[in-house]
Amino acid sequence: MPVNRIERPVILGIVGDSASGKTTLAAGIAAILGPERVTILSTDGYRRLGRGECEAAGQTPLDPAANYIDVLEQHVHLLREGQPILMPVYDHRRGQLQPPVYLMPADYVIIEGLLGYHTRAMRDCYDVKVFLEPDEALRVRWKAGRDCAQRGYTPDAVMAAIERRRADSVEFIQPQRTFADMVVRFSPPGNDAGESGPKLNVRHTLRPTLPHPDLSPVLDVGAKGGFRLALARDVDGKPVDVLDMSGDIDARRARAVEDLLWSLIPEAHHLRVKLGQYIDDHNEPAVSHPLALSQLLLTYHLVKAALGHTVI
Predict the structure, then answer these.
(1) Please, what is the Cα angle at 61 between 197 and 196, to 5 degrees?
(2) Quick one: DSSP state of residue 177?
(3) Residue 298: which CATH number?
(4) Is residue 90 helix, strand or coil?
(5) Which domain covers residue 209, as residue numbers?
(6) Nearest-5° angle of CA 283, CA 258, CA 125?
């Protein structure tokens, strides 16, 4: 595995349907790497119309035709080259487009949104690509909670929006899954379908498009304790590794797993912070060990990408 530190920004893509956890994951990784070393671009600002105009036109923001995909493609390329952009901004509370802001790429750039892998030109710009696909009932709860609390929706309006978007999600969002290096799926435990926070299980589908870490020592620590790695077939029939962590994993065992993963990236010991932090449904800080694992795996890949590690 060659090592040759790259001089341009390292690009992470986070794609998934609305309220799949993209912003939470991006913010957590930025906190680990250091906010001063991370630039985050939300692709929401590249939509052509505000909320009301989009609905009147019979479009949803999941449809590429409702977005300036060509401008987004150009901006992703410029950020990879270390060049600044004028990033368009969308105000979700008002449902309106806002004036653009000057955005200069830092050491790491996180691009999160609905259509980040829609074109090959964009896909070729990423060093690491992740797709989020939480359990659908869980995503609906997350969306209802967020949109009602932060975006001025009523519960009925949220459900109506979900129904309007369902066909576009199948046509435009879900197919992007096939381009991801890692697919992350959060789901409630079988004995508590209503769980939506720290006790969620997580499954990571790891494709061989990235040099994933050797997890054998981690598996020894996690054996019989809510942590499992297995060879499986993905939905397309191709072989993948599947890494599972139970939401009810013992805190001491989870910390041991995190310690061993940190040991695999000694270059990043100075970045070590408390992982898995998020704001829960009551607007209070909380910690999720499965979320921490997701953050740490992606941090591993970003740090290694900066050092020039590639798949042989």
Answers:
(1) 5
(2) G
(3) 3.40.50.300
(4) strand
(5) 10-306
(6) 80
What does the block give as tokens for 18? 């609305």
Q: Is residue 47 part of a domain?
A: yes
Q: How many domains does the chain have?
A: 1
Torsions phi, psi of 93, nearest 5?
-65, -45
The dihedrals phi and psi of 21, each to the nearest 5 degrees, come to 110, 15
Rounded Cα–Cα distance for residues 192 and 188 (Å): 6
Q: Reduced to 3 states, what is the DSSP secondary structure of residue 115?
A: coil
Please check whether residue 5 lies inside any domain of the structure.
no
pLDDT along the chain (312 residues), means of 10: 72 97 92 92 96 93 97 98 97 93 97 98 97 96 91 91 95 97 95 88 95 77 71 91 90 82 78 76 81 90 86 46
Domain assignment of residue 232, yes or no: yes
33: its two tokens: 């790497």
Is 3 a domain residue?
A: no
